[in-house]
Every structure is written in C-alpha cells, then in structure tokens.
Amino acid sequence: MGCTFAKNAKDGSNQDLNHAGAEAPAAPPPQDPRIPLTARQKFSISKSWKAIARAMDTTGVSMFVKLFEENKELLLLFENFKHLESREDQESSEELKEHAEKVLGAVDEAIDSLEHVDTCIDFLRGVGKRHTKIPGFKSEYFWRMEAPFLAAVKETLDDRYTENMESIYKTTIHFIIQTLVDGFEDKPKQKAA
C-alpha cells in the first residue's frame, strides 16, 4: 500500500497520509526512575560490560585484591581464603578466583536485566539479603567494593574507560550497591512511578 502526501494549506508542508490507517510509531516508554540511567547509558554499559564479561576472573580477582589491600579486616570474613595475606597468594588462589567470578556474575546479571527493572531490583535485593547469613557482615561493607570495582574495571577496559564510561560505571555501581544494602537491611521496595 502506498502513502499519499497532502499539502497543508496553512504552512505548505507535506503531510504523510497513510491509507492503511496505521498510527505513527509509539514514543519509547518513559524511563523508570528507580534505575538512574538513561536508555543511552544502559546501552553503553551493556556494550562496554562485554569486555569485562570476557575477563571476569582477572577483573574480579583484581577487584578483591584491591579491596583487601584497603580493608584487611574484610579478608577475615572469608573462611576459604582468609589465610591469603599476600597479594601474590590472593592473585593465584583458585578459591578467590571462584568467589570473584561469582560476585562479578551477579553484577553481570544485574547489568543484563537493567531493562527489566523489577527483575533487576528483586535479584539484587535477594543477593543483599543472603549476605545477612554471613557472620559479622555489615551492610556498610558493600560500599567498600565501590572503589576497588571501579579500579578493576578501569584496568580491564584501559583506554575504553573514558570519562563518560567512568560516570556511567559510577552511577551503575552506586545503584547496585544501594540496592544490595536495601535488601540486606530489608528496606521497603520502591514502587514503579
């Protein structure tokens, strides 16, 4: 079926008159304010994250080594690798590597589900809640992961870690950590706007 164009008598512009009666394409759905990223930022982090996903083990180990350098007391929370005091021991530990992959796997799942806000939030809150079973774990410990996470991502992405990507990763990890904390502290879940 074809379209005809009619001249608007008022301003002389052409208007598309579709004989099939189809409506103009719908505008994209409004962004859910519970996730503080624009559609473009979500696309950028999903695309960028693929490089991290390919190097999850090295990125994760780097993140934990940085965490333990800055927070030695947190190493004691980990039964399987609390004896790993040196950087070299931590970098070569299979137990630490497995845990690091599990943690970044959770971040991977969160980033993959950013378009499905309730799924993403429910998943992260569940991860946060499971941490209540770790003896001695406090919600503030989640925040100690922020700087090591960003440093490890920067190291992995290298020159692809631009100022714009840094801003997007900071916003994303802040959202992820706050949602983990909300789950840990059993705070009421925000409703969609």
From TrEMBL:
Residues 36-185 form the Globin domain. Pfam families: Globin. Gene3D superfamilies: Globins. It comes from the Eukaryota. GO terms for molecular function: heme binding; metal ion binding; oxygen binding; oxygen carrier activity. The keyword Heme applies. Residues 1-36 are annotated as: Disordered. Coiled coil: none annotated. Keywords: Heme, Iron, Metal-binding, Oxygen transport, Transport. Belongs to the globin family. This is Globin domain-containing protein.
